[in-house]
Amino acid sequence: MNLHALRIFTEVAKSGSVTRSAENLLISQPAVTAQIRNLEKELGMRLIQSKGRSIQLTEAGQELAIHSNRLFALEGEIEKKMNDLKTGMQGSLNICTTSLPANTVLPHWIIKYKESYPLVDVKLFKSNSSSAFQRLLDYSAHVAIVCGEREEEGVDTYTLLEDELIFIVPGSHRLAGKEVSLEELMKEPFVLREEGSYTRRKLVALCESAKINEPSSFIQIEGMIESIEAVKVGYGAALVPALAVKNEQLDGKLGRVFVKDLYIKHPIKLCIRKNDEPFSPAANFISLVITELGQLESTTPLFEELLPE
């Protein structure tokens, strides 16, 4: 069926006039009449008939008008759906993150995002940095928010916030608020994160660089919050992000141990696949984060190209 002719017929059926339809469609009246005749010839049935100075639909015309209206209404729905996907008003946004962003900055960002894009299906996956990079690279995540200075092949990273890693002990611990050597601190029982976590790798690297032994007495706990809780109830020391224990330090439940001349950067980074333009929902999320932070210090240029127009 000639859809162009069907569209013209639908307009004629709606307006009840060939003349008005020609004006609405910005084409000539003879062109409208010719398309209607061609459609009637194609279907082998009369669709309209004259009624004074107007037209009247035949029974076949009435039936066709019902279905053509449905067809073009569906076309409008499809166009809107595709436009919503293009602009990021609908679709999905999968974010993979490590514990610190998941428990500090991301809840606020996601809520702000959902206020602007309520129809986007947002899913947040929490893991260590190794798993976050893998989810990003295997396309099960659109964006990753991770901590640390690690770089990954095939991934572009952008620094969002600068934090630091600090050593903590229970607030009543004899080393709370004191400065000690790294070697002395490693003699304490430790709460260690799981293999693959950034803080675990960083602690091992510090010990190797200083040529000292890693803690011999430790508990391994998967999860940042759980590790901090273990220290709060009285077990040993841990290396954790400063942002994660700010409140506990203020109320005295945890104390910081200072190691001379040691500052461990712990940036929070936004990560996307290299040379892969983010899908609209992800691009809108990135734009929102930049707006919330005010500015973005990137490790690679031309970040503006990732943002929606």
TrEMBL record:
InterPro entries: LysR_HTH_N, LysR_subst-bd, WH-like_DNA-bd_sf, WH_DNA-bd_sf. The keyword Chaperone does not apply. SUPFAM superfamilies: Periplasmic binding protein-like II, Winged helix' DNA-binding domain. Residues 1-58 form the HTH lysR-type domain. Pfam families: HTH_1, LysR_substrate. Keywords: DNA-binding, Transcription, Transcription regulation. It comes from the Bacteria. Gene3D superfamilies: Periplasmic binding protein-like II (3.40.190.10), Winged helix-like DNA-binding domain superfamily/Winged helix DNA-binding domain (1.10.10.10). Signal peptide: none annotated. GO terms for molecular function: DNA-binding transcription factor activity; transcription cis-regulatory region binding. Belongs to the LysR transcriptional regulatory family. PANTHER family: HTH-TYPE TRANSCRIPTIONAL REGULATOR (PTHR30126), HTH-TYPE TRANSCRIPTIONAL REGULATOR GLTR (PTHR30126:SF40). This is HTH lysR-type domain-containing protein.
